[in-house]
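Form P-L/3: holo structure prediction, ligand citrulline.
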Amino acid sequence: MLRALARYIPASFGNALSATPPDPPIDVELAQRQHLRYMRALAECGVAVTTLPADEACPDCVFVEDTAVVIGRTAVVTRPGAPSRRAETHAIAVALDAWVDVIPMIEPATLDGGDVMRVGDRIFVGRSARTNDDGIAQLVAAFAPQGYTVIPVELPPQVLHLKCVVSPLGGDRILLADDSIPAAAFGSVQVVSVAVEEAYAANCVAIGDHVIVPEGFPHTHAALAAAGFTVHEVPCSEVRKADGSLTCQSIIF
Ligand code: CIR
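OUTPUT (holo model):
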């Protein structure tokens, strides 16, 4: 059975990092209710969810995806690119240690898990403002011996994380926002496209024949349904104000 590790949204979530100060500001109680909807959607897709307590000292702690890359029996606990987020990793490492082997990333590496996308035996990594070459090298050191090929992908400067614009759909399929990264960067894959005006919906969580998507993107919903998925919509308005979306709210392994 697939597991998801998640973390509750703290009351301090209004202070989460954001490229643009949200207007209107984050409604923290609404964010917490929307987060529970995502937890429920994961459960409906057959995933066993473990949710860690929030840490008030870490406003961004709900975005657990950035703190670890878990593939098979190995977890690389990252050194997040934003210094204010580095205190998030300790609790994640302690929790993951119950299930998998934990390898901590060490300075000067920085890497956010939102920059990492596995497709079969390939691991695509966005080289971004958050993820540097040392971070990519430490990912190679952890996963190349297990047969994975790590492939760096250059991100346009306005893109926070690789998975803001592309998500794995299982097998060799990906969901990719038009006019973001050329599909050729991903080699031989099948692409389900997201129109530019729905680019936010390119971040989705596929679990077998099910896919969880942000609420309110009808063309992407239809494209995924046509590709054979049962589509679950979840509201994301408040995490979006903190530059977050769906994949960032869980580590699935
Ligand atoms: C940050 O700027 O780090 C958070 N406010 C948002 C992180 C979103 N993470 C992700 O999409 N993987």
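COMMENT: The chain has five helices and 15 strands.
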